[in-house]
Design goal:
Layout (H helix, E strand, L loop, with lengths): L2 H4 L8 H17 L3 E6 L1 H11 L5 E6 L7 E7 L11 E7 L7 H9 L8 E6 L3 E7 L3 H7 L2 E2 L2 E2 L3 E3 L11 E8 L4 H8 L4 H9 L3 E3 L2 E2 L12 E4 L3 E11 L5 E8 L1
Antiparallel strand pairs: 1-3, 2-3, 4-6, 4-9, 5-6, 7-8, 10-15, 11-12, 11-13, 13-14, 14-15
Helix pairs in contact: 2-3, 6-7
Length: about 260
């Protein structure tokens, strides 16, 4: 298998993880075993599964909630009918009680244990509980060592991986006005940056649109686009509300908390 040829269609930022997936595919092909990747975002999953599809004797399935932002990929010989994803990934539940805990608090507490972000899938918080997906290779370590989130003592319970979870995105709406829906203009408005700073951030690869790094300063944002800027946060383009009296575009932005 020519690895360099397989990587031709993979974006620059995903080439390293693509190499790791090629290694897993070759292990599966050679040993007829089952392998599982770490968790990846929708754009990464799209590129990686297109790569896996170049192998005639390999199949794959995705592990995660139906609308999960990040999923793991289970890779196995195509003749296998049943592969149990719970052998590789677990779903952990923490009763929420009256805790004031945000997504960043859960993530921060988990990462403070020294684990890598890609070993964790989605963190979902709703009125009932806190949930997160995790690779089984670090599950016992987390169960043993995660005792607090913020100042709250927590108890972890592993539940059925197939549990359907109501997902609620907590966001704050903000009305902005811009000359256009250009990426640099919107970023500058939302994060109180100069256009020069917004331009530099994009050119430095710090900005993603729909999970894909973009270097295009003039990219036009569409309703529903998810934009993230490293160390700043994420937002969704909510709606266009026409033009202001000064002929500027009015946009509703949903800033994710």
């Amino acid at each position: 298998m020519n690895k360099s040829k397989n990587l031709d269609h993979i974006s620059t930022e995903n080439k390293e993880i693509a190499r790791r997936v090629i290694d897993l595919c070759e292990i599966v092909s050679r040993t007829k075993s089952t392998e599982c990747t770490d968790f990846y975002n929708p754009f990464e999953v799209k590129e990686l599964t297109s790569l896996i599809n170049t192998y005639d004797t390999i199949s794959f399935s995705l592990i995660g909630n139906e609308d999960s932002e990040s999923k793991a990929i289970l890779i196995y010989p195509e003749y296998m009918d049943e592969v149990n994803p719970a052998d590789y990934v677990s779903l952990v539940k923490i009763d929420k009680k009256d805790y004031e805990i945000a997504h960043k608090d859960v993530l921060g507490s988990l990462l403070s244990l020294g684990i890598k972000r890609e070993k964790l899938g989605d963190i979902i918080i709703n009125d009932e509980a806190i949930y997160f997906y995790i690779r089984n290779e670090i599950l016992d370590y987390v169960l043993l060592n995660l005792e607090k989130i913020k100042n709250y003592g927590v108890e972890l319970e592993v539940i059925d991986l197939a549990t359907l979870i109501a997902r609620e995105i907590d966001y704050e709406e903000k009305l902005i006005t811009c000359a256009s829906a250009r990426l640099d203009l919107v970023l500058a408005n939302i994060y109180n940056l100069s256009r020069s700073d917004a331009k530099n951030a994009i050119e430095a690869g710090l900005v993603k649109v729909n999970y894909k790094v973009t270097y295009k300063i003039s990219e036009t944002l569409e309703v529903g686009d998810m934009v993230s800027m490293r160390r700043r946060g994420r937002f969704i383009v909510g709606d266009y509300l026409g033009l202001s009296k000064k002929d500027k575009l009015k946009l509703i932005i949903k800033i994710i908390k």
